[in-house]
Design goal:
It comes from Adineta steineri. 20% of the residues lie in helices and 21% in strands. It is built from 20 helices and 43 strands.
Amino acid sequence: MSSTLRLCLHSSIVKRITPSFASSRWNSTKASSEDAPKKITTHYTIYPRDKDERWKDVNMERYAEEYDVAIRFFLFYLNLYILLNYSVPGLSAAIRLRQLAKEQNKEIRVCLVEKGSTIGAHTLSGACIESRALDELIPDWKEKGAPLDTPVTKDRFYYLTKTSAIPIPVIKGLPMYNHGNYLVRLGKVTAWLGEQAEAAGVEMYPATAASEILYHEDGSVKGVATNDVGIAKDGSPKDSFARGMELHAKCTIFAEGCHGHLAKQLFKKFDLRKNCAPQTYGIGLKEIWEVDKSKHEPGLIIHTAGWPMVNKFCLLSMSSTLRLCLHSSIVKRITPSFASSRWNSTKASSEDAPKKITTHYTIYPRDKDERWKDVNMERYAEEYDVAIRFFLFYLNLYILLNYSVPGLSAAIRLRQLAKEQNKEIRVCLVEKGSTIGAHTLSGACIESRALDELIPDWKEKGAPLDTPVTKDRFYYLTKTSAIPIPVIKGLPMYNHGNYLVRLGKVTAWLGEQAEAAGVEMYPATAASEILYHEDGSVKGVATNDVGIAKDGSPKDSFARGMELHAKCTIFAEGCHGHLAKQLFKKFDLRKNCAPQTYGIGLKEIWEVDKSKHEPGLIIHTAGWPMDTHTYGGSFMYHILDNGQPLVQVGYVVALDYENPYLNPYQEFQRFKNHPKIRSVFENGKRIAYGARALNEGGYQAIPQLSFPGGCLVGCSPGFLNVPKIKGTHTAMKSAMIAAETVFDLLKKSTDDNKSKGLEPSDYDNRIKNSWIWKELYSVRNFRPAFHTSLGVFGGIIYSALHFVFRGKEPFTLSHGKPDHACLKEAKDCKPIEYPKPDNVVTFDLLSSVSLTNTNHDSDEPPHLTLKDDSIPTKVNLPVYDGPEQRYCPAGVYEYVENDSGDRQLQINAQNCIHCKTCDIKDPKQNINWVTPQGGEGPAYNGM
């Protein structure tokens, strides 16, 4: 398997895969675990549910997925449990089936189900292997890099007494003779076989436990059912109970491994052991050691028998458990694959597709593409039904920058309200990042005001707000000097009482609180489309289709996304969300506000010398390296992370800059060379890098927040306090207000009509009556003050006035043009020369991008789409000298020479870190950022 998602999925993925029909039981009284009989065993296989009073009102309907093969060849479902080294046979069967299908020009679907978190997670073996079967299966395994790296060189066998070792010759022809075999870590071999299987078109479903064999009426095997989830320790159904899924097939191959629990049932049902002796077993225990090189002999095998047992032996060799990163096809695993039933259709050749920069279906609709004409585009729709007729709620969350926090805050607040009013509601969060916090990036210095309201005992619960601010410093920089500016209490930049944090860790902690409150969380699930009712109200969202080739054609593994329907959808996408953009346009939400203006924030985390570290110190700067007409500045936060002295340093460049030669990433690197700054990082180690756009429009740019069927929270509308450089507290508060509004609305609603969404229209008024509005109004003129002819000095002058008027001045300044319209033509601007990186304090772009851990499937349509492929070479390059190759902080856009010697745009979508800068700053608004497959993008760790 390829990777973007570094995530070990636990067994609750079964719940995420299966529709939760069984959860529709909200009127039933929850059984108290205290009333349950005290048993050692509470499993339903011992105590059937049909005789348990606690289960009598639980809907036990189970969703069944029927696999249908249109070419009438056959349908194959491969059930694989990786136990001991028996993952290998399952993968071998899958690969061989695909080979046979290819040889005979038959298109078949092969899928592997595995209860371990990853392919190889349950793999354990000695392992010394013969390559005989591998030679037959994959004759060129050496060329393909199979990890059989240690051929056997020596064979030794000893009979042990307590104090001696009697050598026994290992003669050719004896079973223990191993020359020609290989010593391996079988987990790595399993992983490699998994890669070969995936390359052959096998579908793999890890973290999916099959618990029951299903039978036809004639007694033949029909398939398997996955585990039910949400069952308490005492055997009673929890609120989160969800029935497993049925998987039906014509033929099921069981490769469970030694003493498989399903194989045991098959032995009994079909009397498979009637003509053989009882099986006998051994227990194998294994350790791996790092040893002194002087004691190591590569390829040596030692077997022993005798002491401390009699007639037993042990094996010294190598193996491993596999650390495997799952990729974004998890979205496919979550959604039923109705669209894959097209086996008679001819596969479109990617070589026949027109050579386009953009191949995404949002630009080239599939209904006009011949390659898609025979593809079944039916999409499975999951209807959330709440039996108490209270309401159905679906919370759509995208974790971007620090704006995962509002989504989690809304979810927690909803569960709190439900508990307070004794109402049982279902709250779920959908997140395109691989894990909760994987796309979270912020400074971050946060006010705890909203957190105090949401979780008053956050300190006792271990919230990772460990570094209170101790010192505030502000400097105006020239090229060689740093002019101190006093930070006086009452100014927005005053930070005493705030906390320096790694916001990704705060997000993860909030995720734990949300899960403890009963919130369902769905990571690695990308919502790509808004769904509407016939009356135009929001119906919900659809997840991404998967299995689409880079040229836009359907692959054999194509699967349609899933529809998620709800009465009310809360959008917490973060800055410049791709779905929020659509909502702004459809409902004209920005008709009464100024255009949003943005900045690009770049950040690094450094390990620094303790002698240079002051825990709780904040340093902000303005001035150099920006010119006087470009808004920008830096932050430097000294934090302690589990006792480790770290410095979080970043630079923000306003995206209304004029000079197309300006490069935000290079400005950040140049900033670190300032004499006041550089010394902090010398002899240090950079451990993280990332970037993200942020809203800077403030009060003037806040749109209408509610619409039929949903509302916007956090940085989707834009609640960042610009002079404070803080938005976490306001984003959290907006989400809490939204949760309270939606809860009250749906509690009062008697309309049970599922054909329209409800509008939380009172949300706008509640925001205007909250401290968010008062706070943003008081600083409304700070950012636009920099638009005057005085530039940065105008902003500094206004800062002094703000101390006097405290935001009560009788005027409101405007921002002016949208950011993309501010860019001047290259002929009117001077190119900027940037110093080369020294690889000590400053670094090249690609080495920085590698620290983001970003990844995307190389064979999918680029999610950076162009509305017109010709604009880059007709406009951007000749008029603006290709600004996209400079404003992107990840090296996504590059002008390269084609065969005719002309320069053309190349989009390196794999580098994208989801900052959205290109969508904002492109001068002709030709770039449209859309979501890639779920789980892709950066994998930040505590940014």
